[in-house]
Amino acid sequence: MKTLRVTAAASACLLLFAGGITACAPPEKDSGGEQTSSGVKAGEATSAKDFGGLQGLVDAAKKEGELNVIALPPDWANYGAIIKAFGDEYGIKVNSAQPDAASQDEINAANQQKGKSTAPDVFDLGQSVALANTDAFAPYQVETFGDVSENFKDPGGKWVNDYGGYMSIGYDSAKVPAIAGVDDLLKPEFKGKVALNGDPTQAGAAFSGVMMASISQGGSPDDIAPGVEFFRKLKAAGNFLPVDPTPATIESGQTPVVIDWDYLNVAETKKLPSWKVVVPPNAAVAGYYYQAINADAPHPAAARLWQEFLFSDKGQNLYLQGGARPVRADTMVIKGTIDRAAYAVLPPVDGAATFVSVEQNQAATKYLEANWAKAVG
């Protein structure tokens, strides 16, 4: 059972989520925070200007002293290094809860702990879950907000895409034959070996994995049904492995084939020399994750400083060093602030990229909710 970390003030308490029971709950927290120099509370601040500038935000965040993040695995997009760099730079303790949780788990935790000091301050979400929960986000525009294309942000700053990549197939070349495309996964040599990162009704990576399969089978962002049908065939062939892959399952050999973002699969090549990665040439599905602030964040100034850090040149280059494609990459290339060495080793992509729009995502999510469990159950 996964439990959320608690702050020092509640160190004697344990959260018991089984059956929805809470024992010795953490203290309630005023999510509005202290009043800023502009007269609004920290939880209502929409930019660093409300704190009198970035230094004022830094001072307010340091006074809070802590930041609660959730669902950020250390090996995912270099989050281990990002969390350390943020803590080192500002002297703020980062409480990282449920690192292997899915996007929906983040929202569930925020709802379950609303008003508590252990509630998540920030979210890092897949598209489906993010767009279904925008009422839970606080609008905020970082100093580099103007560098982000209009297609990758909410106009008011409720959410902003932070990093992305391409859906890929990673495989252990010492255990399975070479993979050139999605159709290869139906071959008998892959019996019990093909894992998908999560449930596509809840996890952004899994959603895009099914979309990749759909594109490869003649579908489109408007029609994810061929992707669901592909996984039905994969299940019927005995090739689908219902295990959520992690670095540990990959390195132990439990999941020799993994459908996941290219930056996650590429990270494994550094640990497992036989691990290979392919972005299917006929199904290059691109996607970005959504960064947002919890409207009820217990540490509202620290939450906003975290956003500033992630979208700064330093934060964006840290994503890049983890193999992810930072949302500000184009601007940083022009300005000369991109980490060129890290940028040069991104996996090649053959063919046009497929992006899923907000409307297409919503329609595809409804289809998945109605049909996924029947296909692979």
What is the name of the CATH class of the largest domain? Alpha Beta
Q: What is the β-strand count?
A: 10
Task: Report how far apart the termini are.
Answer: 23 Å
Helix residue percentage: 25-40%
**Helical/strand content category:** alpha+beta
What does this structure look like?
The chain has helices at residues 54-64, 79-90, 103-112, 127-132, 204-216, 225-236, 247-252, 262-269, 300-310, 313-321, 329-335, 340-344, 358-376; strands at 66-70, 93-97, 122-125, 137-138, 160-172, 194-196, 257-261, 275-278, 286-294, 325-326. With 377 residues, the chain is α+β, with helices and mostly antiparallel strands. The protein has two domains: 44-163 and 287-345, D-Maltodextrin-Binding Protein, domain 2 (3-Layer(aba) Sandwich), CATH 3.40.190.10; 165-286 and 352-376, D-Maltodextrin-Binding Protein, domain 2 (3-Layer(aba) Sandwich). α2 links the parallel β1 (66-70) and β2. The chain is globular and about 65 Å long.
